[in-house]
Amino acid sequence: MSETDLIQSAQRTIALEIAAVQALEERINGEFVAACEKILSCSGRVVVSGMGKSGHIGKKIAATLASTGTPAFFVHPGEASHGDLGMITRDDVFLCISNSGNSPEMVAILPWIKRMGIPVVAMTGKSNSPLAEAADVILDIAVATEACPLDLAPTSSTTVTLVLGDALALALLEARGFTAEDFAYSHPGGTLGRRLLLHVADVMHDGETVPIVTTTTPVLEALGEMSRKGFGITTVVDATGELVGVFTDGDLRRCLDRDIEVKNASIEQVMSRGGRTITPQALAAEAFNLMETHKITALVVTDNNKPVGILHMHDMLQAGLV
């Protein structure tokens, strides 16, 4: 095949799958609503099952449901009849995927599912199949033709099934009022989870590692404190321990530019008053945004205006927030 032939083949596949998905949109009707209501009224889990390519799509649908507020898991129909049916309870909903509606492994377990009184939601392309006849709700995944030029490999049909699974999961998400915070709780290892769950207190340096000097400290001693703690900054407090300013590497450069005799100066004469601060309870993502906005690499953490921690941009990198 020439390069042109390869490109045209890909474009034909994409066009056929887009057409299949557009046809699906027109079939979203009362049956889709009924499927949502069955699942929303279910006190157990959504058990997703399918053979072959339908099984692969089913695993993704189960994962999407589980991560968007609908407890779900995948059961292989071949394993189900060899013990895995014990994973399914009467409180569950059985979401069964088969384009033909006639997969032998699936048909074999349907009588047990029905005997248990478990509602069956079928995703099938055949409304007169054994699966459709056993289902309480039928979601139509029929396609005019597979994108495969041989019309054999499940391509358009699996795309339609995947899209319908996403539509189902996200309709349920909205119906449950599932929030970004809810999503984060099931994704603590991801960047989104860290941004929504990680607090300043989780990543800041505290205790003896916090650089602190008083307003009467000579600049040379303050530089020593900065070198020992290694953040390029020291907090400056008054006699009551409250923060009155900070002294940074940048302040030192400005002192030298202005020919200030640092050997004889006190830190109060050269520090930057005030400065950006944040509380330990704030989200680490807020701290990161503050540091980015004001182009600073270290941030003082205060509690009742007393320095209790230091946050450095390196901490954000290590925490995976960047």
The geometry reads as: elongated
Per DSSP, the total helix count is: 15
Quick one: biggest sheet?
5 strands, parallel
Number of domains: 2
Strand order of the biggest β-sheet: 2-1-3-4-5
Catalytic activity: D-arabinose 5-phosphate = D-ribulose 5-phosphate
Pfam families: CBS, SIS
Pathway: Carbohydrate biosynthesis; 3-deoxy-D-manno-octulosonate biosynthesis; 3-deoxy-D-manno-octulosonate from D-ribulose 5-phosphate: step 1/3; Bacterial outer membrane biogenesis; lipopolysaccharide biosynthesis
Protein name: Arabinose 5-phosphate isomerase
Please, could you describe this protein's structure?
The mean pLDDT is 90. α1 crosses α7 (156-176). The longest helix is centred in the first third of the chain and has 23 residues, at 3-25. The radius of gyration is 31 Å and the shape is elongated. The chain is built from 15 helices and 13 strands. With 322 residues, it is α/β, with parallel strands linked by helices. The chain folds into two domains: 3-178, Rossmann fold (3-Layer(aba) Sandwich), CATH 3.40.50.10490; 200-319, CBS-domain (Roll), CATH 3.10.580. The protein has a five-stranded parallel sheet with strand order 2-1-3-4-5, with helices on both faces. A four-stranded mixed sheet has the order 6-13-12-11. β12 and β13 form a beta hairpin. It has helices at 3-25, 30-40, 52-67, 77-80, 104-115, 130-134, 156-176, 180-185, 191-197, 200-203, 219-229, 249-257, 267-270, 284-293, 313-318, and strands at 46-50, 72-74, 93-97, 120-124, 137-140, 205-206, 212-214, 233-237, 243-248, 272-273, 277-278, 298-303, 306-312.
